């Protein structure tokens, strides 16, 4: 077989504000690959099926000297993130041809030779779930919600939780875990469609933070025992103001500041008098503790419809830059997934 | 016996900045009391021996509609706080003449009729400790350090802790608990005398934050696994910057903002990527869990010198206003105690 195109999405420049498609990232079609002859050197060759686009991408778009909890993207190299692919060839017994692999280090390109599994894993799909679910509620975002909630919420029936970005991959799962635990759920998002979706998955009080004052909602519906924070900034200050004594704050994201600079927090000192507990949440350190439990429970509940989810699927690797921008601006409709190739192709 | 003077310290006006003696508080000698005939109505009469002056007083100097974790002082009424007194008369079996009582609701006046014990308790003194120690390391400040450290530090030998206000009643106890647990202790305070005291009780790195840059110290001696925060503001931001992964922040005070307004916190968002755990600490909710343990251990260790402490004793109820100001400005030399009357008088 002759070499074929191996299109990629490259990190091109560090953005000042929002990431601009074609400037921050470039869709590049100059590379080719011969699927039959490309050397594997003991590794395996994967065809990328779909990629997840997540809020944390913005943090990886930084100059290489800035440290953070994730490695940054490298200028001139493909982006990487969670994704699903199918194995075309393998020289390792750990991975068989036809296996599906999933994990956080999928490159944003059509075909990739992996020297080893590393953080990727071979994954089995539930018969009644699409692969895309493994990039959302059955994957990293769902796991983030699950492990954070289990580890730190200390939730009790009758308590009140406030969930931000409640229509996103993480927030939607938090809403449903909270309802299952018997809590009253206040949830916010940035469009009327997202409000409707949050209501459909059980939020007791769902509101559009762009048209409704968060402080007014919390004053009326709070105080809040648990705050699931995906946004930071003024919303976080409002949560401190209307937090109950002994409240738990699960700090998962701060997207209000990712593109425009982090806002300083004015109400931090209220932590003392209210005896609040604030926990930073990354999924990977907590995942081993809850891994078996998560996969034993969540995919089946998603397949049966007991847990609901929404996703916005975009076709084409060339659309990654647009999807990244939409996720940062919140103009995406639901958890963002980019389909790179159909399985049958 | 004829009526005698019952001097008081009254809350007179809400301060805008630092509390001004004679304006924020007034020393008042207009009241008298007849110790033999004052009606007890089933309560008991106490002669005030000594009073504690603490940083949290500033938070109680607010207009009455502002809510907080402690009741505010009332304009025209005596201040209240931790103190020790001796019982002169009693009409309740719970309190005997000659008992000493201790607790958070001692009025700042020479004699007080208590209708009931309430939050006060009858207390036994260790033979080799003065009563003043029960307002410092053997009382509320020591208990705050003890319960906070036990509940939330999750300390492991070899870790690094940063303690602010390390020469104060709380901070000095934290330094010694941390050394006992095998940690490296970085400690800050606002004078060279306080630095020497912190060194004498075991701090490995003690510095004067007024003359040494906190960030530079933490960059060199950190990262810090535990931060004991008595000050808030820019110091807290520095602690976030140089916190280790999985660090614990014990939020006990925020005195940098009590008199000049709370500073907004710029580095809060670092909580997420470092998976930090931040806990607000009040002593009273945690005290029942550690009460027996505290009194079984700490007074004896203080009496033997195994745990050291410093105090600055000021004589005279009329000096309370000055001492309050010194504590807020940090110009006091050590844990502040005001002696109102000698026992033998």
UniProtKB/TrEMBL annotation, chains A, B:
Record SUPFAM superfamilies: GroES-like, NAD(P)-binding Rossmann-fold domains
Enoyl reductase (ER) domain boundaries: 25-338
GO MF term (any one): oxidoreductase activity, acting on the CH-CH group of donors, NAD or NADP as acceptor
InterPro entries found in the cross-reference section: ADH-like_C, ADH_N_2, ER, GroES-like_sf, MDR_fam, NAD(P)-bd_dom_sf
Pfam families membership: ADH_N_2, ADH_zinc_N
UniProt keyword terms in alphabetical order: Oxidoreductase
UniProt protein name: NAD(P)-binding protein
Organism: Mycena venus
């Amino acid at each position: 077989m002759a070499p074929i195109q191996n299109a990629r999405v490259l990190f091109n420049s560090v953005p000042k504000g929002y990431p601009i498609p074609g400037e921050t990232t470039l869709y590049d079609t100059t590379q080719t690959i011969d699927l039959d002859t490309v050397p594997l050197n003991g590794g395996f060759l994967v065809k990328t099926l779909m990629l997840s686009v997540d809020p944390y991408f913005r943090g990886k778009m930084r100059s290489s000297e800035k440290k953070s909890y994730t490695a940054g993207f490298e200028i001139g190299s493909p982006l990487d993130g969670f994704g699903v692919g199918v194995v075309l060839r393998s020289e390792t017994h750990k991975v068989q041809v036809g296996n599906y692999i999933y994990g956080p280090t999928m490159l944003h390109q059509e075909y990739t030779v992996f020297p080893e599994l590393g953080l990727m894993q071979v994954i089995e799909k539930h018969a009644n779930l699409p692969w895309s679910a493994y990039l959302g509620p059955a994957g990293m975002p769902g796991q983030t919600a699950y492990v954070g909630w289990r580890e730190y919420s200390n939730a009790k029936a009758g308590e009140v939780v406030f969930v931000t970005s409640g229509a996103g991959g993480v927030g939607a799962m938090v809403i449903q875990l909270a309802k299952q635990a018997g809590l009253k759920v206040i949830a916010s998002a940035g469009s009327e469609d997202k409000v409707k979706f949050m209501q459909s998955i059980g939020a007791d009080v769902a509101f559009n933070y762009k048209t409704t004052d968060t402080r007014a909602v919390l004053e009326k519906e709070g105080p809040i025992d648990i705050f699931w924070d995906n946004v930071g900034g003024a919303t976080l200050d409002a949560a401190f103001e209307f937090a109950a004594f002994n409240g738990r704050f699960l700090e998962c994201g701060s997207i209000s500041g990712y593109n425009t600079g982090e806002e300083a927090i004015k109400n931090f000192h209220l932590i003392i008098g209210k005896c609040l507990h604030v926990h930073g949440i990354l999924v990977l350190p907590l995942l081993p503790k809850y891994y078996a439990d998560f996969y034993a429970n969540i995919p089946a509940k998603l397949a049966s419809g007991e847990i609901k989810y929404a996703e916005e699927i975009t076709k084409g690797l060339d659309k990654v830059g647009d999807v990244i921008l939409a996720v940062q601006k919140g103009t995406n409709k639901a958890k963002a997934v980019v389909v790179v190739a159909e399985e049958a192709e």
